[in-house]
Amino acid sequence: TEMSYKLSALLVACNEEEQIDECLSSIQFADEIIVVLDKCIDKTEKIARRYTRKIYKGSWNLEGERRNFGIKNCNYTWILEIDADEIINQRLSLEISNAIKSKSFDYFYIKLVNYVGNKAIKYGWMACMAPDGKFCLFKRKNKYWMNGRVHPSYKVIGRKGNQLENYIIHNMANNISELLNRFNRNTSFNAVDLIEQNYNLEKLFSIRKLLSRFFKCYVTRKGFLSGKEGLIISILSAIYPFISAMKAKYDQN
Fold first, then answer.
1. Residue 143: helix, strand or coil by DSSP?
2. What's the gap between Cα 232 and its chain centre?
3. Are 103 and 184 in contact (CB under 8 A)?
4. 70, 78, 136, 178: least surrounded by Cβ within 10 Å?
């Protein structure tokens, strides 16, 4: 049926007035845009109203809960789940429109290229700062988010399609200060999760683990090819579990 080829674009946002316009403008090819606003106090809603009437407001403590709420409120078979700092270029939008005509698949993986300012960081990534791809194109009943404050995990079920050729542009940080803010925020969220899971923090204080993470990011995954930014990212990736554990240990007192 006609409905089964229709696409809902889902955007969950919290105070994203700086970048949401460019994102929304890039997903106008979808048959509907659903925006979920979480504790927004800036102009995000005003900007979103230019693109869609389907805006839901609320307050959620866990990322997974607000995303599941968004998925439930999409009206079409296929969903493209996107964040406010991501942009879908025209080549990718055409590829997405073709992919959802497939009768054989239930979800697709799309690569992300993370940008710091105008620089694409194509090497040396590790998922504590930003993933290098995700299953963000899926049929509504085939994806479910779990709990977790930062980059929570999700389940996708059904038949997996081929990875799409084109990638999402992810404006992860405009500059190094924003990159460090992101690191600080992610480690704080991660620390709260560690406390709730009663995680054995001693495991995360291992210097060997720290060095092997740096090696993996800078050498194995060729972070050195991303220049000075690649070095900073490799260091942050290396110390991510360590700093999260330090925060869990000291900040809970």
1. strand
2. 20
3. no
4. 178
How far apart are the C-alpha atoms of 143 and 156, rounded to whole Å? 4
pTM, whole model, 2 decimals?
Answer: 0.88
CA 186 to CA 85: how far, in whole Å? 16
CA distance 238 to 196: 23
| Helix (H), strand (E) counts: the chain | 7, 11
CA–CA separation, 201 and 251 (whole Å): 13
Task: Answer for the pair 36, 12: CB distance below 8 angstroms, yes or no.
Answer: yes
CA–CA distances in Å: residue 233 to residues 82, 121, 227, 230: 23, 9, 10, 5
User: How many degrees, rounded to 5, is the angle at CA 63 between CA 61 and CA 64?
Assistant: 110
Nearest to 54 by CA among 31, 30, 36: 36
Give me the half-sphere count of Cα atoms (radius 13 Å) on the Cβ side of residue 132. Answer: 10
Q: Which residue has the tokens 């406390």?
A: 195
H-type alpha helices, the chain: 20-26, 44-48, 63-72, 90-99, 176-196, 207-215, 227-250
CA torsion 171-173-174-175 (nearest 10°) is -150
Q: Is the Cα dihedral 118, 35, 185, 138 positive or negative?
A: negative
Q: Is residue 168 a contact partner of residue 135, using CB atoms and an 8 Å limit?
A: no
Whether the CB-CB separation of 80 and 27 falls below 8 Å is answered with yes
